[in-house]
Amino acid sequence: MTDWTDGRPIFMDLADRIAADILAGLIPEETQVPSTNELAAHYRINPATAGKALNRLVDQGIVYKRRGLGMFVAAGAPEALRAQRRDAFSEQFVRPFVEEGRRLGLSIDEIVALVTKER
Amino acid sequence: MSTPTAGPATGTATAGTPTGIATRITTASAGITLRGLTKSYGTTEVLVDVSATLEPGRIYGLLGANGTGKTTLLACIAGHTFRDGGEIRIDGHDPLEHAPTLARLCFVHEDQAYNDAFSVADILAVMPTFYPEWDDEIATRLMRRFRIPRRTRSRKLSRGQRSALAIVLALASGAAYTFLDEPYLGLDATARGIFYDELLAVYAASHERAAAGTTAPRTFIMSTHLIDEAAELIEEVLVLDRGRIVLQADVEDARRTAFLARGFEADVLALAAGRELLSTRRLGGIVTATIRGELSSDERQRAEAARVSIEPTTLQEFVAAIGQHGESDQPAPHLAPHPAPLPASQSASESRSLQ
Predict the structure, then answer these.
(1) What are the protein's GO molecular function terms (chain B) (predicted)?
(2) Residues A70 and A82 reside in one and the same domain
(3) Which residues of A touch B (CB under 8 A)?
(4) N or C of chain B: less Cβ packing under 10 Å?
(5) What is the model's pLDDT at position B243?
(6) DSSP helix/strand/coil, A4
(7) pLDDT of residue B26
(8) Which domain holds residue A98?
(9) Interface residues of chain B, partner chain A, Cβ below 8 Å
(10) Distance CA B247, CA B341 (A)
(11) A41 and A61 belong to one structural domain
(12) Per the CB < 8 Å rule, is A46 touching B204?
């Protein structure tokens, strides 16, 4: 069984996985993304769940439907995804990182120093 | 083979049905409708009052603790046993009074009794007689993948082989409504993987045929206690508790109907105030509670400040908590998929204490 994120709806996790593949260039712009049934069979999930994941990406403008052909990666999707992730970077990574540092008694300067060291 | 009512959601009247039944329900609604279903064995009430509507073309999970009536419910719907009261309609027909409907149902019992003289090959050979849509190709493929010996007498099969054979029969039956009662018993991880793959393949193929307009997509109802593994295959869950359906919801919504809270007793208790406390476990002064309801982000922050950790429940934990609920004869109350949390001011008087 696939190792999904605990407590998170599977369709959201799956949408993120497909998005990650698009971002990584594994599914280039204007190429076809796997169908609902292919995703369902591959991940052993209900096709309705796979369909919800694809619809989520359609809503985000990452993929689009070609009538009778299937879903395709939108032009500019990787750049859009990169921008989306940049926006989420602070919320998802920086804030929890600073909070954990504070819990451990580190000052902001000390945290910044640790970041600088990673350069 | 005729499938007179196989059209998906046509909603047409059934005046022309051969037996002229369906007089109480004027339009043939596709899917399964249960109303006030009751069933007792002797003095034991197994099904108390089961009502539900199941759309066709989905995979359902029938969940609940042992002895809550899952097998009895499936047997009643499939026409394997007589109900005491209530109504069952499958695509508008009572299956017990409408042979063409009965021919579209397949229920392989968890402890299916076959004729002792029959070999596996004999059983396979008679199946097309009962199931007009029987698919030999699927049967052959699954027999090979599960490595079930054909010449063995049915009673000599191991537990796992019996389960695998039941799966072969159910999937190859081609039945519009297929009921799987604890299909995993004795199956190892590899065999369960084969089952998941084949169920999804058969299900997807039936939807493709339905889209081409030839038949209705197949509906599967699967009872299971391996809930978390099955959760990914299921679209909608029905949770049975003491003979009643206490929850019917989309599988994701079902998981969100409850959460786990862990912390000092008083803080957890405060959080449970005005909500349904489904189960509690304690470790010294620390209490882990399964609580029905959703938390606002405000409540989440307050809980965090009080060092109460909040986690989502898995479907398995949720169903187990319902099974333990009260540990009395009181069934769990009906759970709405999205219960509205009570305002804090109202909740104090309705709080339940931890016993």
Answers:
(1) ATP binding; ATP hydrolysis activity
(2) no
(3) 1-2, 4, 6-7, 9-11, 37, 40-41, 43-49
(4) C
(5) 93
(6) coil
(7) 39
(8) 78-117
(9) 58-59, 193, 196-197, 200-201, 203-204, 207-208, 229, 232-235, 251-252, 255, 311-312, 314
(10) 17
(11) yes
(12) no
Where do runs of H (alpha helix) occur along chain B?
70-77, 99-102, 120-130, 136-146, 159-172, 189-211, 227-231, 251-255, 265-272, 297-305, 315-324, 344-347
- What are the tens digits of pLDDT across the range B31-55? 999 999 999 999 999 999 999 999 9
Span B56-101, pLDDT tens digits: 999 999 999 888 999 999 999 999 999 999 999 999 999 999 999 9
* Domain annotation for chain B: domains and CATH numbers: 32-252 (3.40.50.300), 257-350 (3.30.70)
Residue B11: DSSP 8-state: -
B281: exposed, middle or buried (C-beta count within 10 Å: 0-12, 13-18, 19+)?
Answer: exposed
Which residue in B has a C-alpha nearest to residue A2's C-alpha?
B232
What's the total number of domains in chain A? Answer: 2
H-run or E-run covering B246: strand B244-250
Please indicate whether, in this complex, the C-beta atoms of B197 and A45 are within 8 angstroms of each other. Answer: no
Q: Which of B258, B259, B265 is closest to B354 using CA atoms?
A: B265
- pLDDT of B323 reads 80
Instruction: Give yes or no for residue B352 having a pLDDT over 80.
Output: no
pLDDT score of B330: 44
Asked if residue A91 is part of any domain, the answer here is yes
Where on the phi/psi map is residue B328: left (φ > 0), alpha (ψ -120 to 50), or beta?
beta
Contact A7 B235 (CB under 8 A): no
**Reported ipTM exceeds the 0.85 cut:** no
